[in-house]
Amino acid sequence: MIDPRSLLLALFASALGVIVLTPIAMSLARRFRLYDVPNGRKIHSVPVPLLGGLAVLVATFTVLLAAGAFLGLPLDMPRLGFFAGAFVVFVLGLIDDRRGLSVFTKLVGQFLAAALLVLSGNTDGLIGHTPFALALCMIWTVGMMNALNFLDGLDGLAAGTTLLAGLSFAVVGYLSGQPYSALVGASVAGAALGFLRWNWNPARIFLGDAGSLLLGYFLAALGLLSTAGKPSFAHLLVPIIVLGVPIFDITFVVAVRLREGRPISQPGKDHTLHRIFGILRSVRRAVLVFHGASLVLGATAVALAIVAIPTIMVAGTALFALAFVWLGASLSKVPTESSARSDRRAAAHARPARVLPSGAKSAPASARSLRRGAASLAPESEETPSDVLSLRQAGRAR
Description:
2 strands; two-stranded antiparallel ribbon; 1% strand; 16 helices; 398 residues; mainly alpha; single chain
């Protein structure tokens, strides 16, 4: 059993480390011109420095290595695999932020990181050690990395989700007698808390793909670690409930795109966050809705882990699943820019041709009508709160 004071120390040390390191990451991002530039599918309106993931990586690694040595937790093969996979994820995301990578290349890198995590012994075989079971664990890891990447679209959303999920895993690990799982959960939660100092709306820095993929990797690893030594399959539901928000979002987006016949990897403003933001028209209110859902799910998961009665765990998960189905059906009716543009294209193709009298010629379109037509097909702009002062400073730095 790990001392709860050690967990609190790890949490605050990780938070302080990120708070101190993030300005350095911002300076490096400006020096190497690593910015998230606005476009038609993004909510922010001015370029924002990336590289927030660097502060998260360095702080989390430092705290985990120092705390592990202090607590006598060995740096064995599972720990080395955990660190190696996290480093691969960060480098992969950094290259994608800098140059851009194809979907295939990113998936190859993500599965490599997942293999380092899973095959080094960070799952105890609750679902078995067969190739099929290990493949499922790797798919879980890759899926969660992309789920956090999908969710990283509003200031403070991905970091806040990670903070609440990390705290839930830390509590579950502490109550279950899993010291390393509790330590990782506290350290990751602290890193997310520290990053919120700079990423809360209006954000002064973004995680970038390097950071969002890294946080997703950490949460996937916590999901695997939290099931170690559990007696029944029902305990697999605890990490699913804790991570219900990112799981719901990526499932919803994939289902909508498949229904509309669009590529899953095609960027668009059809995520859950865009729909919630479209209803509330406020970044902070939208993010607080997500965090409220994460808080309820995390508290429920902790309660179920304490009760540890499989029937109740399955019933609770089933209720949340039904609620998510209803929510998905409701959100799918909220219009988005992607759906509006699809409807305009469909209407243009379905418009019947005008029949002209015999011998008549169609009149040429006026410049005004052409401009109106072009404007109707152009993506609609959104004015949202952003860190104007910070980006003015970034502009001077450039």
